[in-house]
Structure formats: C-alpha cells, structure tokens
Amino acid sequence: MSTEAPNNKSLTGYYRWHARIYDLTRWAFLFGRHKIIRQAAALAGEPGRVLEIGCGTGKNLVHLAEAFPKAQITGLDLSADMLERARPKVAKYGERVKLMHQAYEGPVGGEAKFDLIVFSYSLTMINPGYDEVLRQCQKDLSERGMVAVVDFHESRWRWFQRWMGVNHVRMEGQVLDCLRHHFQPLVCQVHHGYGDLWRYVMFLGRKAG
After folding, report:
1. Which CATH class is domain 6-207?
2. What's the whole-number average pLDDT of the chain?
3. Taking burial as the number of CB atoms within 10 A of a residue's CB, which of 115, 175, 190, 198 is the most buried?
4. Is a pLDDT exceeding 50 seen at residue 131?
5. What's the average model confidence in pLDDT over 134-157?
6. What is the distance of C-alpha 15 from the center of its chain?
7. What order do you get walking across the sheet with 49-53 strand by strand?
8. CB 106 within 8 A of CB 76
9. Nearest 5°: CA angle at 88, between 82 and 90?
10. Are the beta carbons of 100 and 73 closer than 8 angstroms?
11. Could you write out the three-class secondary structure of 138-159?
C-alpha cells in the first residue's frame, strides 16, 4: 500500500511518462538552473554536504558535483522513473553522490546537516505543502547553511497559468513570499521568460534570524 500523499501520487504518475522526454524538452523553459549553482558556489565557498530536493534526472547533480568536487551530494526525488535516468549520469562520482527515492516530508540529514540545499523548479509543484517543505529544510541546514532556489514565479496571462496548472505548476508568486519569510535573502532576482510570458525567481538565502 502506498504511503504517498494524493499530490505525490499525481506527480509520480505524471513523471512516469515525462521522465522519458524531460531532458529533451525542459531546457527550453527551465532557465537559470546552471546560473543558480554558479551563484551558490560564489557565496557558499566549499560546502561539505549538499542536498538537492527534486533532483529529477540528475542534470543538476552533475553540475553540483563539478562545482563542489569535495562535497558529499544527495539527490532526493519521489519519482523512481526520474531517478532511473539520474543513476547513469552520477555513476562516475561513485559514493560521493547518493540518490534517495522518497518525498521530502522531514529532515533527511539527521545529525549531519547540509551546508547547501538546492531546489530547482520543484517548489511550485508542491501544492499544498511548499511552506512545510521550507520549514523542514531549515532543520536540515547547518548553522551557516544556505538555500538556493530557481523556480517559476508568476505570469500575468491567465491562460498560461491554467496551462501550467495542467502540468502541476502553480505560479502565483507564492514561493518568493514564502522564501522571504523563512530565509534572509542574499540574492533575490526576478527574471523574464520569453519576453514577459512568465517570470522566474532566483533566490539564495540563509536562515532568518
């Protein structure tokens, strides 16, 4: 019997098919994924442990492994189909890169906290629950740990919002407000995709307070 929440069941079903075409199609609109890692590298120094929540097919894990060659890196995703495509990409890094098949419903680091936690186009797909995910993320971060987020922000076009909703993405500015509540911003930028069809946010921050 599955223990996944209804939203998680829907997403695993969605990615059962989309995992096959993800790398071929998402490059056209998931902007800023490499840039957020470069910005994190400039601010985070040499993190010992890195976690990516919603690592998908592992493209970011490769960039993280190259950007932080001394770090232990964990990629977490609730889709077994996506992780199946991530495994060959990260195999060359051996035990330095670990994959976890589960939803992020609580801290996974235990006593060994993470110095950098990355969300790449995953928070806007967690509806409801993104606020609780960020609360748990705070518990997984080390004292001077940093969160790095790139994600959809908003669109002024209702038809586009509805279309993104079909693809499980909610883009009503909710993620940025929540990030500002939980974290002290170090970088907070809003960029435009395809003119002004949509906007996406790039955010790096530390625990508030």
Report:
1. alpha beta
2. 89
3. 175
4. yes
5. 95
6. 15
7. 97-101, 72-77, 49-53, 114-120, 141-154, 198-207, 183-193
8. no
9. 90
10. no
11. HHHEEEEEEEEEEEEEECCCHH
> For residue 195, how far is the Cα from the chain centroid?
24
CA distance 47 to 61: 14
Q: How far apart are CA 92 and CA 117, in angstroms?
A: 22
Give residue 84's identity as a one-letter amino acid code: E
pTM beyond 0.85: yes
Question: How far is residue 162 from each of residues 28, 189, 199, 200, measured CA to CA in Å?
Answer: 19, 24, 15, 17
Confidence of residue 128 (pLDDT cuts 50, 70, 90): confident
Helices assigned H by DSSP within the chain:
6-18, 22-25, 33-44, 59-67, 80-90, 130-140, 158-166, 174-182
Give the max Cα distance, the chain: 46
48 burial (CB, 10 Å; 0-12 / 13-18 / 19+) is middle
Q: How far apart, in whole angstroms, are the C-alpha atoms of residue 174 and residue 104?
A: 19
Sketch the domain layout of the chain as residue ranges.
Answer: 6-207
202: Cβ contacts below 8 Å, ≥ 6 apart: 32, 35, 36, 39, 149, 150, 187, 188, 189, 190, 191
CA distances from 160 to 3, 80, 127, 152, 193 (A): 32, 29, 18, 12, 12
